[in-house]
């Protein structure tokens, strides 16, 4: 079987150029657990950068898919996505090298919290989440996964 590889560009918003991405295991749990987070939506990376103090920088990477990595992909918000995000935000570990899918931004996360604590039903969560703007994130959760990223450049906002 042939190992096919595709290349795409991904973006990361921060307060400095990130030439050598690392998985930082500290702080609060994120949607897909600890990892180095990027997006294929440059506008979203710009928004991430603008939330940082002092400098606002977008780093650009070429990403080559590696079929040998254990990848979990959520094409859209789904019950499986919701359950996975709740588990990750609660600190439940997983064995994926890369996880990709929609982002639970602050507004969506409030709905996720309400669902997880039993304040709203699954149906109510989907009614509230339905009209949010499209988001995308890809979390590189292992050092092996980070090898599929190549730093290209950065620019300041």
Report on the architecture of this protein.
This protein is an alpha+beta fold and 157 residues long. The protein has one domain. 27% of the residues lie in helices and 24% in strands. It is built from five helices and seven strands, in the order E-E-H-E-E-H-E-H-H-E-H-E. The chain has a four-stranded mixed β-sheet. A three-stranded antiparallel β-sheet has the order 1-3-7. Strand 4 (71-73), helix 2 and strand 5 (98-101) form a beta-alpha-beta unit. Helix 3 (106-116) runs antiparallel to helix 4 (122-129). The longest helix has 11 residues, at 79-89. The model has no long low-confidence stretch (mean pLDDT 89).
Tell me the layout of helices and strands.
Elements lengths: L6 E8 L21 E3 L3 H9 L6 E8 L6 E3 L5 H11 L8 E4 L4 H11 L5 H8 L7 E4 L2 H4 L2 E8 L1
Query: Low-confidence stretches at least 5 residues in length (pLDDT < 50)?
Result: none
What Rg do the Cα atoms give? Answer: 16 Å
- Please give the alpha-carbon distance between the first and last residues: 44 Å
pLDDT averaged over residues? 89
The largest sheet is: 4 strands, mixed
Strand content bin? 15-25%
Number of strands: 7
Proportion of residues in helical segments: 25-40%
How many discrete structural domains? 1
Secondary-structure element order, as H and E? EEHEEHEHHEHE
Strand order of the largest sheet: 2-6-5-4
Quickly give the structural class: alpha+beta
